[in-house]
Design a protein that fits this description.
By secondary structure, this protein is an alpha/beta fold. It folds into four domains: 168 residues, no CATH class; 93 residues, no CATH class; 183 residues, P-loop containing nucleotide triphosphate hydrolases (Rossmann fold, 3-Layer(aba) Sandwich); 87 residues, no CATH class. The strands form three sheets. The protein has a five-stranded parallel β-sheet with strand order 2-5-8-1-9. The longest helix is centred in the middle third of the chain and has 28 residues. The radius of gyration is 27 Å and the shape is globular.
Amino acid sequence: MKFAWTEFYKAFSLKLLAYENDRQTLLQKLLKIYGKLGIKFQKLEKDDSITDIDPFTVFGLFNKGIKEANRIAIIVALAKEFGVSGVELPSKFDGIPVLNNLKAVFFGWGRKDDDIDNLWTLFRYAIIYADSIRTEIDRKEFIEIYNKVIKQSCIKWNITMGLFWVRPYMFLNLDSRSRWYITNYCPEIINGNKRIFREVPDGERYLTLCDSASSVAKSGRYSFADIPELSREAWIESERVNQETRNARSAQQTDGEEEEDSLEVDEPVPAACGSVYPHYGAEEFLREVYMSEDDYNTLTDLVREKKNVILQGAPGVGKTYAAERLAYSVMGVRDSERVLTVQFHQSYSYEDFVCGYRPTEAGGFELVKGPFYEFCKRAESDAENDYFFIIDEINRGNLSKIFGELFMLIEKDKRAKTKLRLLYSNEKFSVPSNLYIIGTMNTADRSLAMLDYALRRRFVFFDMQPGFDSDGFLEYSSNLNSEKFNALVGSVKTLNKVIEADATLGEGFRIGHSYFCDVKSDEQLHKIVEYELIPLLKEYWFDEPAKVKEWSGVLRSVIR
């Protein structure tokens, strides 16, 4: 099968290469295109500045999770602006791996001075190697710069995707689907070595894999005849297995096995290095979590930059609900195996969290590892993927007692570099760099002390707001089409202004939108008011019964 997109990608790469030493002009052209199309440009820097770009990130602009119409529009505009002619512009993209929208840049904010230059050099040598007679000198030069690039920030398996875009018949795409497919369906490519994909291969091994994949494809023993067809087959087969898994779960539910909340169900597929899971990005997050897009972008930036974030806010703003979905959106997939949630309470201890001795049935004691220890080890053994440890109600525990020596180890610059001996096991332990911590904290809980300052400086704090004015909530309320619902929400928004202005309360006590997120009929509104909102107001204004009576009357009146 001949893929039309391959010729355009090859032609565009040659046009792009001409801007290796004129990147400011390249950026101007890209911004011009996006301005005309009315599409928001890729975030490149922490402060939203646009100072430099590498060629793989340029390819990533139209090879990530965007609408098909936008993808085609960008390609058409690129062809016109850069003078790509004589090739068919693609409208189908079979077999092309795409980036996670939150990881669509091939360089980091804290990059070294030569990181982007190295990416351009690799881009140039990849084209030279693929388009030449491939001498030993060409191979050596490619391997040398490739080995330098894979050590850079933000580079993992994605670099093989970028090389595949540039010359798809030469370079093997090793995204998660392809690695799974190769391991399970054509292990001949890897000589049956299932351990080979535990880490990104060095240059020599990568080119050997590319040569092997090409040779195996040409053998006629498989359903694919070249590397692009291999990438396409990997996608098709993983989707087929996905669908079988969904069908099997659906059949189980039909037979009486009910699941509490369909939104919580993941759909894993057996894979070589982890599983293939349903995509989950910004669009899915904003559809399920009522937050503005700007707040979401800020929050994800904080997660990536600090690694430790606490979501704090008033009752009902959906902190716990948002925490898990935030993890999915940063990972780019709905993979519950890489997310673990615990809830702190006053009896929670270091022994519960990290490790400690527990009595056995025989009357003795054994050392038992806690959830944080076990989860860190899982993350450490799967360094290519991100893991998220969620601590619900983080301020309800005695944090100094629970974290112990982990205070130091959770700092971003100590991750994977600093090791300390654990209290009980005498084992040297570190927190891996691919593990993120998200805590939730209810700002309206009067009974809890302030966070330990030592812990506070290791986290960033993000205030979650009631999402009544977010696009997602407005769409939800519009679909309900209930005058009583809209009137009640309007009254609560007014009530929130009163709460915020109250010196004894403040914005941390405002009423959140989650009280209203599962309304099926107007009859439910009465229960929300009588059994959730009014009891909350009685707690807030326990010494001001007149104010409770006033606002109880207001809320009741709008739903009569």
